[in-house]
Every structure is written in C-alpha cells, then in structure tokens.
Known about the structure:
CATH class of the largest domain: Alpha Beta
CATH superfamily of the largest domain: Dihydrofolate Reductase, subunit A
Shape: globular
Strand order of the largest sheet: 6-5-4-3-7-1-8-11-10
Strand content: 15-25%
Oligomer: single chain
Amino acid sequence: MSTTQPRRFGVQGLWPLCLDIARRRRSGQPQATPLVADDDWDDEAIELLALLQPLLDRPPDGAPWVIGQLGQSLDGCIATRGGDSSYVNGEQVLLHLHRLRALSDAVIVGSGSAAIDNPQLTTRRVAGANPVRVVLDPGLRLAPTLRVFTDRQASTLLVCDAAREAEAAQRVGADQVLGVPGLMDAKGAMDLRALLPALQQRGLRVLFVEGGGVTVSHFIAQGCMDRLHLSVAPVLIGGGRPGLLLPQSASMRDCARPASRVFRMGADVLWDLDLRDPG
C-alpha cells in the first residue's frame, strides 16, 4: 500500500536559492541554473517563485530593469490626508517588500517619502544583503540628519542634477552623492531617462522603486518602469492621498491594460503588472 509523501521544499528552502541568484548577478558571475518548481515543492514556494521569477531572470550584464511597488486602499489611497501610511497593507506585503529589496541592486525613493517616513530601506525582515539606497532629491530639500544619510547600514546615494553636485556633497558627503548630467529639464522636471544609465554605470541594474506614489507615477509616465507590484488592502481611507497619478486617457480604448497576475497575501491582493505588455 503506497502512501503520499508530503511536499518538503518550502519557502525557507527557496529563499537562499533566490539570494544566491541575486548575489551572482551583482558580482557578474554566470547565472545559476534556473529554478524550476517540481513535485517536491509546496504550494507556497511554487507561488513565491512564480511571483519573483521575472526579477530572478535578469541577466548580470543587462540593461537597467525597474520594478515598482505601491500599497493602497480599496479606494486608491496610499495614506490618510495627513500622511499616515503605517500600515496600509498587512505583514505579508511588508515581508514581500523586504524580499524585493534583498533581490534588487538598489532601492529608490523620492524626497517626499524620505522626508515623511525617514525610512531605513534595509532588509530587516529577511535574510539578504541591503541594497544601495537611492534618494531622489534634486531640490536638496532633505535634512542631512535622515537615517539613510547617517546610519551607514548600507550605501546611500542622494541623486541631484550634476550642476548641484558640489552643494549636495557639502550636505551629506561626496561619497553619498550622485550628480546626474541632464537630470533636470528646462521646465524643472526630473528626466528619469537620464538617471537609469547613471545608475547602470555604478553596476546598479535591477532597480526597485519603493515609493511614494508620485515617484512611482513619474517612472511609469516616463516609460521607465518595467513591472509594478500593486498591493490592495481591504480598507477604505476616504479623502486620503492618492496612489498612482498618470496622464489622462481620452477614452477607455486608449487606456493601458497591462498583462497581469494576481497573488493573495493574507487579506491583501497583489497585482503583478507587466508594464511592457500593455495589452
């Protein structure tokens, strides 16, 4: 009489393999054998691998590849009107956010999120190396006392236009400044297409845009984001701060309908959106 053996390969076994792939990519080593789920894997590990596979498949010498993350309420808000966003999403989404940090070369935030949240942008909830922390502050408005500039837990780059690089260096130190030629256009808006090759020159190719909504929206609007993980929590904020703010479409026929997959994360729902496949 045969018995069915329990599946034995779970997330705890999968995660070190994911980290090894990221480590090899960062060091320019040949890619490891692609991970393929089989009958020995449990359902949770199979689903996590499916979600992370697009990121794990990035080659070590490829063009910059950008993934964004945004957590919002059912009514499309990322925070209350006063800015309270702790926490819109639940524990599983927070864990996923830290996994994205650990698998990316750099994590990017805008000055608004940095000022409000004073984040650490480290991998505290998971095993794995901290990414380079990239803070977009072309106006040099952020206080040099923020944790990303002072805690030395990970490398940090304050990004500004090259014309203000010396000024930024006086504020946070030259080792923490990346001056990008042509970052600001004639209208005073940031040209993110100038940022990506500047990060690539530093070996930062897999880029994770963590927030906030304005920064994620700018990356999408300028065609600089490849994938978006949009997590929706079962909460109604009402009159809060909106998440995505994108150019208006004239009709529904003109609206992008990116290829998508749906994953459950506790009470939250994560939409994995392929922005290079507009549908």
